[in-house]
Amino acid sequence: MRSENGFGVGRSVLNLNDPQRVLLVTGVSGAGKSSMLRVLEDLGYEVVDNPPLNLVEQLVSRADHHLAIGIDQRTRGFNIDAVADLVARLRTRAGLRSELIFATADTDALLKRFTATRRRHPYDNDPNAGFSLAQNIAREIEVMAPLRAYADLVIDTSGLSLPEFRQMVEARFGSRADGGALTLSLMSFAFPAGLPREADVVFDARFLRNPHYDETLRPKTGLDPEVQAYVRADPDYDRFLHQILDMLGLVLPRFVSEGKRHATIAVGCSGGQHRSVTMIEDIAEKLADHTHPGLSQDGPVTVSHRELARQGRSFWRWAKPPQ
Length: 323
Fold this sequence. Notes:
By secondary structure, this protein is an alpha/beta fold. The protein has helices at about 35-40, 55-60, 80-90, 105-115, 135-150, 160-175, 225-230, 235-255, 275-290, 305-310; strands at about 20-25, 45-50, 65-70, 95-105, 155, 185-190, 200-205, 260-270, 300-305, 315-320.
């Protein structure tokens, strides 16, 4: 339930030692932005959906709670450049942790959702324009593509049920509900596209042999066995993997003792497609089955591949679900 001023009822008061968290939630119509805002409200965020764009910074300045703000093409003053400029300004504020979250889905999933709910697409305001639903969806995906590329997190909801979607949002943005276990997110990324701002620990896999230079492997990803075999054949791969796991065995218990609820471990390479993806997959396997000596991760583990998700080639998933 929302209060009369639009804010969530169960609000999460800021700890004076924690940065204020501001989530700007956007995406293509029908991809789950409103559902995400409802989950965030249940988690204790103050939720404001579609305020005028020029009022967002005032809302942030006056807030003493974590905020989730919905922005889309219905927002007064909305345009891609204005939203990007807003995000850039918020990212420079001291004591503020801001993230742009972009919800998307493939065209087939969006068509099914609009057909099932019988909702009109926002681009269908002019019945004389002559565009079909599929054409309107394609137009919006194209218009919103620059904002998707600028996002800190892209969530593709095509293959997610509502319970799975809720679990994912709770794992990423919720408070700890399992008596102290750490929720760990593993992420691959490309260095040229920028460091993940949410990363607590970053490893660099660019020194490993690169499948990009093999014409047969170049179009594939680290989710493909052929690429994984190529990367793992590097003589230093196993040593690097085990040293990462040793480091996690040292720092993760300290994160828990410091009261951290969520930690993100990121591995980067040049394109975020081959080496870092392979490494994240192997780290996830070791954490999920407790096969590395001295390393125990009692809490849930999630996996995402940032660059592949931006291309629509992979989905967020549980490597180790909550117990």
